[in-house]
Queue: 3 jobs
Job 1
Amino acid sequence: MTNHARAGQPAAPEDLVDVPQLVRAYYTTHPDPGDPGQRVAFGTSGHRGSSLGAAFNEDHIAATAQAICDYRSANGIDGPLFLGKDTHALSEPAWATAVEVFAANEVTLLVDGDERYTPTPAVSHAILAYNSVPGRRRADGVVVTPSHNPPWDGGFKYNPPDGGPAGSEITGAIQEAANRYLERGLHGVRRVHLTTARSAGTTSTYDFLGAYVDDLPSVIDVEAIRSAGVSIGADPLGGASVDYWAAIAERHGLDLTVVNPLVDPTWRFMTLDWDGRIRMDCSSPYAMASLIGRLAEGAEFAVATGNDADADRHGIVTPDGGLMNPNHYLAVAIDYLFRHRADWPGSAAVGKTLVSSSMIDRVAASLGRPLLEVPVGFKWFVPGLVDSSVGFGGEESAGASFLRRDGRVWTTDKDGIIACLLAAEIIAVTGSTPSEHYKRLTETFGDPVYARVDAPASREQKAALGKLSPDQVTATELAGEPITAKLTSAPGNDAAIGGLKVVTKSGWFAARPSGTEDVYKIYAESFDGTDHLARIQAEARAVVDDVLASA
């Protein structure tokens, strides 16, 4: 991937989305159900798209909300539905459309009482808290968010009663039903006016912020952070966590500054990401350039943190190390948590996605903890977090959650807020930054290099890659080392990975088709340096190209 010439530079007026045009298109453009790009399509985090491309419009949300109502009815889910939204321009109109449909279907709906934006982890926390009381009807939730995606995108994701991202068996049913409604011109979609919906007896309010913030000491050692006086600079990146960070500082007496409290649907205060687009990716050094620069100019904070628009991702910036690679921070968090959570179950596993760093494997082995390696997607960690058989689940894309201090479930969706607060706890308890901790890990386990690159692939080739079997890979060596494993299913749960992973003693690569672009992604890592990594990447392309040539 070639970086844009202005990557990391402040956004200019010509980079900004036209918000009135975006909202107008939401209401006036109608999708063509015969165009695959204009149908409802649930990925790992819900349906996403832009109204400007007829991929996220009022029809999509009305149809999807009705499909969710149908799913709830068919599956006996008749408790409240917790509805949250982030700060994207399309989130507010989509939220309103959803309220109108849910109210017309007499769904018991709980929305934020102060009209606040609602982070994804606060919705997951609310679902689990409600369902933890015996005898209650099952609750679920929806978050209107495209996560870290650019300002012109909208998103709509469903969280079932387990509080986590819906699995493909659920999203597939909702997607199919929603597209049938689109094909019928929304015939069968029940809906009332927003004023009627807001005043309906089934619509009520919930204090998402209070419930979440007040409960934080059960998952983070807030007292240690306060007593040590750890100074925190929290940047919500214009996202839904903005009020939450201010409340965390006030209610828990922390030395915490909300670095940028502004909310603007154009995100005009952002620096451009690697491709020259505005993207609220708190794991990107380009999107986080302002915060990195602020800490580099002087040790204003002991740690600075960032979140994406719905706060399900984390970014950790230290004075001594800059922005931490997400894989590095996951390894540090795992090492710290399993050494400092005495009340966690002794058999609780370390959860990682198969494209996360093998440093995590080595840390887990040193801790004597089982490793649960699963396909890409946080949904795979949900059952283990619910029953506490997984202590920590993390993705290489800077998403993670972990158990409460007493070993019970906290959230079953990614929680960027607790991941950021954990960095402050690590400093408070150990006196070392997460960057310093990672350096010590490399001294023990080696210093891996990790990268991801994209390569072109047709729709047919992507389909072939997604259906690979290990015996289609004839290579016996990778970058001069014997291949020890050829995986098309995840070791942790035997679920199909939708691609291929090849492993040797000192490195590995994984190739997966993109769900949104005509490319496949190659993730690779080496414990033998950058030259070895380059060999792995080159040979990975050759291995995959041999397979795709026959597609």
Job 2
Amino acid sequence: MTTFLKDIKPVLRLFLQTHRRELLLGAALSAATVTAGIALLGLSGWFITATALAGLTATVAATFDVFAPSAGIRFLAILRTAARYGERLTTHNATLAVLAALRERLFRGWASPGAARTLLNRPARLLFRLTADIDALDSLYLRILVPAAVAIGSALVASVTLGLMHPLFGLFFGFCLVLAGLGLPLAAGRLALKPARRRAYGIETIRSRTIDLVAGQTDLLMADRLAAQQQAIVAADAYTANADDRLNRIETGVTFGFGLLSAALLAAALLSVAVLMQAGAITAPVAALGVLVAFAATEPFAALRRGAMEFGRTILAAKRIAPRLSATEADFAPGAPAHELTFALRNITVAHDRAARPALLDVTLELRRGEHIAVVGSSGAGKSTLLSLLAGELPPAAGIAAALDATLLTQRTELFQDTLRGNLLLAAPDADDDQLRDALAAAGLLADVDALPSGLDTTLGEGGMGLSGGQSRRLALARLFLRDTPLWLLDEPTEGLDGRTARDVLHRLALKAEGRTLVIATHIRREAALADRIAVLDGGRITEFSRRGEAAFEKALNRLRPD
């Protein structure tokens, strides 16, 4: 129970922070709908019975007031209709608005450097969090919280109404209704917890495996694993179908249970009003009112059946997204270094989660403004980790880090299915077309863009489809040029480019980097040649440090891969 409250608390907090008034109004309208329905049914039964009895004698018929009850029935009918319409409009509008805010909050959380890195290899999981998990949370308000509150309220109204006929009758009926009416959904929710989670896992697995099949069908075909991947999807579908079957069986049992509950409570109400009538405590019209109120009071509890079936899915969704919603710590941001320095690292140690050894160990390094340094070393030596630390994406486990604002150009060129302008504006949202064209010209891509029929408004496909590898890298370079930061961090900026394109990119980069500080992580000679300092990383430690003009500098260059 403690874990459940911990997981659900961030979600409830967001619900209340964003649209508290609408959510409370929706709950109030839902309660008004149910209360009006109970009163309408009870008053109608009383009125029909009283009218029939009044017609037995002319004296009573002449004095019987039909107008006040008729007006009350019309009022309750109109109130029930209006409240139902308002409740549906308010609750669904508020829920959709909350889910939109929740999706935005979660997307921003996953877009932060540390969280995004954990999902880099599992993009299908992120898609599932933003879609199915968020959608599952609409049940929390619409099918769990509001129906439960309304059901308890209806039990209270029925208990008070029947208690006016006889206190023990009202207390006994209300106690049994709450005990059984809430007990059945709680038991069903507990039974459905595991199959609901299995169903959620199964759907996620189907989606991820299908995405892998579609996106990687060429690789799967070449590796002769296409049929195996198809069988994996079929297995996930069978797993999900079994969970669905189990949930359907539980729901059938709950439906049958509520039928028995309604029949038992209605029979008990009939016997009770019969005894009270025989004792002369109530009249026949009041007895009819009591039976119909008892019958109507059980209806709101039946609405909890759907929420019980989705309880496990809702809790699982809240558990998976709650850590990102409740995270209050900001991304690591290095402090400001001394005036003449761009960055300063003192005895820095960085360790990745579940890694056997630190990625960086006792690293001390500093660089003055305007200087260029190449960080070289074998794969896994810690070069990318060092850049992530300077960019503020990784906090140090030990030591002190200070750095100016930095822009990181990673090995991967991340382009989106958007226009060229939209991809450029990610770096500088306020840039005008002249600034965008200047950046493209500096990157050597302006002529190619101008040759396109739509120019900057040309739409790229997924991952930048429509551009060659060199053009994609130049577009990423143009985005870098739009970022006016004193420190540029480059992770193998020309990897995968042909020699001519790579040399042109590096030439343009050197021109634009005049007066800025560059940190280049590389194992290619042509990239390291831009630097006037070389730091050699080995096993997370800086083992060598040399300056241009020193023999160690040339020696370090000669050990790198040639152009």
Job 3
Amino acid sequence: MKKLVDGVFLHFLQKEMAYLLVKAKVTKIIQPIKEELILILKQNQCEYKLLINVSSACPSMYISAEYEWNTAVPNMFCMLLRKHILGGRITGITQQGLDRIIYIKFLAQNQVGENRRFCLVVELMGRYSNLVLLDENEVILGAVKFLKEGQRQILPNCKYPKLEQNEKINLLEFEPQNITEEAELETLLQGISKKTRMQLRKVARTNEEAINVLIRLLSSEKIPKPIIIKAENDEEIPFFEFSGVRDIKRQFSSYSELLEYFLAKQAKDNLIKQRTKDLNIIINTHKARVQNRLSVQRAELEKCAEKDYKKQCADLLGANLHLVKKGDKALTVTNFFEEGQPQFKISLDKNLTGAQNMEKYYKEYRKLKTAEAKLKKLIELGEKELEYFNNLSFNIEQVSSNDDIEGIKQELVEQKYIKAGKRKAQPTQAKVHVAELGVGFKVFVGHNNLQNEFLTLKFAKKNDLWFHAQKVPGSHVILKSEPGHEPDNKIIEPAAKIAAQNSKAKGSLTVAVDYTKISNVKKMPGGKPGMVNYVNFKTIFVRPN
């Protein structure tokens, strides 16, 4: 199971499945998609759904409690399985050493009532994952993926080419001697991944000690409890419990339950990741347009600085019109506007009179002055829009559910950055995050701009306290107090920490958080959702939670 579990984890899963499924009868076979197979099994009046996935993205195998499928037209491999093993019973579930290969053996009767033995080989090896049906002579009857090229060919009516055992040590058969500390365990032993080695070395000082821990686990009749642990980078890892293992996030009653939970969560996380990626593309596209527009506007604003020169030329020409003759290309006059009254040269259009040249300069001055005022407003609006996009990007980083994504999409539709779908979206109620903060106090946290605006401008009362990390994108945090309770530093500081944690600065050692009464917070005129101005505030410096 690429990037999911290793051979040791699979060993415990195999033992668990063997305990439950050996002697179970195959009552139904379904293949919803090419690389996914479901065997419906019955044992002691209990029904089990054995799900096998041999996709390269996430090869897996477990007993499912929740999986639902759509009825699909059976393909050739599914029909082959129904022909040979439907109605048969599982006689064994074994593993090839500590490799990621499982053999499910069946005893079934053919059409004339003769007993036949078959083997379903489950190869869970990343992009090389496969599902192969063999007869009693290990001849290939069919496979999900036929391989015609390379050293290992999977073809019908050919002998199944078992994967050759590499030089790594199988702890189920041999106990290694004279282990050196220079080599990593995953290079010495079968079924050991880097993640497993790293967890073992947290409780074992040497490779020898780590191997002894593994041997005790593998030789024990009792299967270790399945758990999810959190690694250093906050990554969640399916694992198995042993003495001294740390960072346990959750325990499960079975390895199948763990895998179903983990894969469902992974699928949800991947979906959220893809949807947030799509939103980021939309936001970054609009952001780039605003940045390009601002770049042009700032360049034009720099040119507007010439307006003072144009006015000076016009004023000096007006004072010296009597010196201008038609046909003159320039006029040098005394600049009485500057200290020392230096000489000042004015360029002229030879086809115009002095008065016409003066009016031309005044016209250019008025044009530049008007443009400057408009450009300053446009640049201010553009900078606010950039700030809004930065807030949106932060909100996307914070999403944890499809509801959060739908809230951001709804906001983008309302702001006309994306078009609404053909089906008119129903306005969603802003769902904010709530936490108790001691007796008589509650904290409310917005996780997108619509939630922030709802909290600050509609939900909060004038005496509630409003918190926000200073000068960075972040959530609006509202501290509500019940009657008779006044927040002191013991309440204000934790509320500020929540605001710091829910901000772009959450990775900093210390974050400045502004807070004030809601009555001092107003919506920014012409601002996007969630953008406010505030006055009469205090600042507290806190360490994010």
